[in-house]
Specification:
- The chain is α/β, with parallel strands linked by helices and 520 residues long.
- It is 24% helix and 26% strand.
- The protein has ten helices and 27 strands.
- Strands 3-6-9-10-11-12-13-14 form an eight-stranded parallel barrel, surrounded by six helices.
- Strand 11, helix 7 (242-250) and strand 12 (257-264) form a beta-alpha-beta unit.
- Helix 8 (281-308) packs parallel to helix 9 and helix 9 runs parallel beside helix 10.
- Residues 1-20 have low confidence and may be disordered.
- It binds alpha-L-arabinofuranose (AHR).
- Alpha-L-arabinofuranose (AHR) binds at residues 49, 93-95, 196-197, 320, 368-369, 374.
């Protein structure tokens, strides 16, 4: 085994690794000859809600701002997001979606009404960002739009008219209104959600009530023929599969997917804190263990869909996921601002592997949220911006967008155990990228022990691997405006020695490499 090229950072962690005796060798067998379902690019989707500085300040500064922007959207944040190849953005909520009235956000800015954002801090919502502004953002990003309609406090007519305004051509008066507001061509809206969390902030309904509402909405809300808009029902959360069960069995009207939400909590520490940083190993492993529950939740929901939708028409849309901690000290109540550490990057990577494993049903997800809110990619402060460890995880996994999943078998995988909690130390996922390369992603969850991973492809060994590694000295390592690169990816490469390719994973590390298989 020989590491041939390495950055200073990776060389440092490898040196620490070299002194660790007696590591068990984990085997990873990639079955490249048996490609599975496509991993939709939409699995790497984002969520931007009218919440805190998630939009106002973090993304939107307005055209008159001194912060460099294009038609109001900040250039620095948009450029960084473009590097993630953001495939889809969900907007305007979340809970906010069910209090949003789309006509408030069209026409001359000065004439738009000011409303109170009662879900999130009771702040003034001046509707500076509305339909046209959001659709310009996704255009700047090169992403698709996932617009979430208001079922809770809106009406069937209001939602039907919004979809017509968005997608209609011809002589429709709503299309003419859209044109008069600057966009003659119909918009491309890839996804449209009918309400959000109807069991909670979206109206406190039972699934039976929601299904009956859905039927009514689906009867009247139509995208223009040929627009291809897919409709997503608001579904359940956590371990409750009853929404997926009932909706996939009984709901009537066009439905292309059912949403599902699950947030990862670290559990309270001895001081009752759910801290984003400053946690000990018990909160590390608990967080990772909690996030791994996503596997069981998806399996449970998919089983319900498989029972009622034998043709696999419905997608399971995990359109809210990620970590939820105590709000950052000093941050405004209701703004859900939190720091983001190496632990969050691990959470992201473990979830990616789960989504890949269920690629046939999980055809879209959106992490909560894109900027400044919960498990964000980017944090801003005035004109400053910092990329989080989660951002780096998303960037490392770009090759998995629209890749063909490939089965991976792990052997001799040690358990990582701490304080009575236990999980397999190594998680793996593989895919054949659009570029034809074979990609392997590995996560070593153990913060105290490295792992050696022997890789073979179709039983024929592998020659080399190269890509990137994300790790840091501390479990809660994070990036700040003062130290923006404390956690950042470094190059990672290895070559076979004696016909065997072994990757040395440091403790608490994520590695994504392209693997060159041995010629049979
Ligand atoms: O992402 C924050 C909130 O969490 C969303 O608005 C809501 O849907 C969920 O409860």
């Amino acid at each position: 085994m020989k590491i041939v090229r390495m950055s200073a950072l990776a060389a440092g962690v490898m040196a620490a690794f070299a002194s660790m005796p007696g590591l068990a060798e984990v085997s990873v067998s990639i079955e490249a000859a048996k490609p599975g379902p496509l991993i939709s690019k939409y699995v790497y989707g984002q969520f931007a809600e009218h919440l805190g500085t998630g939009i106002y300040g973090g993304l939107w500064v307005g055209p008159e701002s001194a912060i460099p922007n294009t038609h109001g959207w900040r250039n620095d944040v948009v450029a960084a997001l473009k590097d993630l190849h953001v495939p889809v953005v969900r907007w305007p909520g979340g809970c906010f979606a069910d209090q949003y009235h789309w006509r408030d956000g069209i026409g001359a800015q000065a004439q738009r009404p000011v409303r109170i954002n009662s879900n999130w801090g009771g702040v003034d919502e001046d509707n500076a960002v509305g339909t046209h502004e959001f659709l310009e953002l996704v255009e700047q990003l090169g992403a698709d739009a996932y617009i979430n309609g208001n079922l809770g406090s809106g009406s069937v007519q209001e939602m039907a008219e919004w979809v017509e305004y968005l997608t209609a051509g011809g002589k429709s008066s709503l299309a003419a209104l859209r044109a008069s507001n600057g966009h003659p061509a119909p918009y491309n809206v890839a996804f449209f959600g009918i309400g959000n969390e109807a069991w909670g902030c979206g109206g406190n309904m039972t699934v039976e009530q929601y299904a009956s509402e859905y039927k009514r909405y689906a009867s009247f809300v139509h995208a223009a023929p040929g627009s291809g808009t897919q409709f997503i029902a608001a579904g359940g959360h956590d371990d409750d599969t009853s929404w997926t069960d009932y909706l996939s069995a009984k709901a009537q009207g066009r439905m292309d997917g059912i949403s599902f939400h699950y947030y990862t909590s670290p559990g309270a520490d001895s001081k009752g804190k759910y801290g984003a940083t400053g946690f000990d190993e018990s909160r590390w492993i608990w967080t990772l263990q909690q996030t791994r529950r996503m596997e069981g939740f998806i399996t449970g929901n998919v089983a319900r869909m498989d029972q009622h939708d034998k043709q696999n028409k419905l997608a399971l849309v995990v359109d809210e996921w990620g970590t939820w901690y105590d709000a950052e000290e000093g941050s405004r109540s209701g703004f859900l601002a939190q720091q983001n550490s190496l632990r969050d990057a691990m959470v992201a990577a473990l979830n990616f592997h789960i989504f890949h494993a269920h690629a046939d049903r999980v055809r879209m997800t959106s992490i909560a949220q894109m900027v400044n809110v919960l498990q964000a990619m980017i944090r801003t402060d005035g004109g400053r911006m910092v990329l989080t460890p989660t951002y780096h995880a998303f960037k490392m996994y770009v090759p998995f967008q629209d890749a063909s999943s490939v089965p991976v078998r792990l052997g001799n995988n040690p358990q990582y155990t701490h304080g009575g909690v236990s999980m397999p130390a190594v998680s793996a996922s593989a895919a054949r990228g659009k570029d034809g390369k074979l990609y392997l992603a590995l996560v070593n969850t153990n913060p105290g022990e490295a792992a050696e991973v022997a890789v073979d492809v179709d039983g024929a060994g592998a020659v080399s691997a190269s890509g990137t590694i994300l790790t840091a000295a501390a479990m809660d390592a994070h990036n700040t405006f003062a130290a923006p690169d404390a956690v950042r990816p470094a190059p990672f490469a290895a070559s076979a020695s004696g016909g065997k390719l072994v990757l040395k994973l440091p403790a608490k590390a994520i590695v994504v490499v392209s693997v060159q298989a041995a010629t049979p």
